[in-house]
Specification:
- By secondary structure, the chain is an alpha+beta fold.
- 21% of the residues lie in helices and 24% in strands.
- The strands form 4 sheets. Strands 1-2-3-10-8 form a 5-stranded antiparallel sheet, with no helix packed on it. A 5-stranded antiparallel sheet has the order 6-7-5-14-15, covered by helices on one side. The protein has a 3-stranded antiparallel sheet with strand order 11-12-13, with no helix packed on it.
- Strand 14 and strand 15 form a beta hairpin.
- The longest helix has 16 residues.
- It starts with 27 loop residues before the first strand and ends with a helix.
- The relative contact order is 0.19.
């Protein structure tokens, strides 16, 4: 449930807030020190054996969205906070078990840290963690006036223009092709084999209803992630207290019905490594205060928890 304690302290929420509805096509209200909002949870393959009618999310939803889970959080901040100060990721309070050799884990950590400027992680310590900026990590971000906020149960589109700066300027006269050109130049720097194709690529990216840059939406998802994923540029933007923010997490790598990580060639059983600790969806201030922290349990974890040992 949402964290309600002081900075760095995890205080259990009241009983009525401890369990989020899953696949019920409904949202749950929550409030923390820094955020007030609602959460929607959809997990592929999760049903209620005691009441089959309680599960209302159709399999077609996951096929259409091409994901295996979705957790959507929508609400308002209680304080104005710079975007580089709010992070998301995972935190654990016991070491991982049955780890690969340390040198392989260290090499993997360095590889991912080099790809993501704001990523901080240590998977070998006694309390493993991985965090990156929320704005540079979340799959979809929508920022709206209260009266224009999307239905959290709908298919939310990217809308980040209200962040201002380069996000708000993306639809100023003459900026559309400039943004396309900038994107191509960045791609060319990463892949020199693309050099010489900027003119053709730029010409193929005019504004249109089908373009990721629809009017009023701001930057594309990939450019938003680059700007807000780097703390040096993210610090120039703020989460305010008046707009409604929708943070939509969804992906197809985590399979929560069997608690596995699907990396294509193999499915890794997470319960072998997390020692009874659940994965979760969280966001927190770097000073330790939480916006939210929802833990995702599975019965396979029970044997290694204090309750399971009783």
């Amino acid at each position: 449930g949402p964290e309600l304690g002081s900075a760095g302290e995890k205080t259990p929420p009241p009983l009525e807030l401890q369990n989020c509805p899953v696949n019920t096509e409904s949202s749950m209200h929550f409030e923390s020190e820094l955020f007030i909002g609602t959460i929607v949870c959809r997990f592929k393959g999760i049903t209620c054996p005691a009441n089959a009618a309680a599960s209302k999310t159709p399999d077609a939803f996951f096929k259409k969205k091409r994901c295996t889970f979705q957790v959507l959080v929508q609400g308002r901040f209680k304080e104005e906070i710079a975007c580089d100060k709010i992070v998301t990721g995972g935190e654990f309070h016991k070491p991982f078990t049955e780890r690969p050799p340390n040198y392989l884990v260290s090499a993997g950590c360095k590889f991912f840290a080099a790809l993501t400027p704001g990523l901080e992680l240590d998977l070998l310590c006694d309390e493993p963690y991985y965090t990156a900026t929320l704005g540079g990590t979340v799959t979809t971000l929508s920022i709206d006036d209260e009266q224009d906020a999307p239905d959290p149960l709908s298919d939310v589109s990217e809308r980040n223009a209200k962040l201002g700066g380069v996000f708000g300027e993306s639809w100023a006269p003459g900026n559309i092709f400039a943004l396309s050109s900038a994107s191509v130049r960045e791609d060319n720097e990463r892949n020199p084999s693309n050099l010489g194709s900027e003119k053709e690529t730029t010409r193929s990216q005019p504004a249109s209803p089908e373009s990721p840059l629809t009017k009023g939406s701001g930057l594309s998802v990939s450019r938003r992630c680059r700007v807000l994923g780097d703390p040096q540029t993210a610090k120039n933007y703020k989460y305010n207290t008046t707009d409604v923010y929708t943070f939509d997490y969804f992906q197809s790598v985590l399979l929560f019905d069997v608690y596995c990580l699907d990396i294509g060639i193999v499915k890794l059983k997470l319960d072998r490594h997390v020692d009874g600790q659940p994965l979760g969806i969280m966001a927190k201030h770097q000073d330790g205060r939480y916006l939210y922290n929802f833990e995702i349990f599975h019965e396979c974890l029970l044997a290694k928890t204090d309750q399971g040992r009783c």
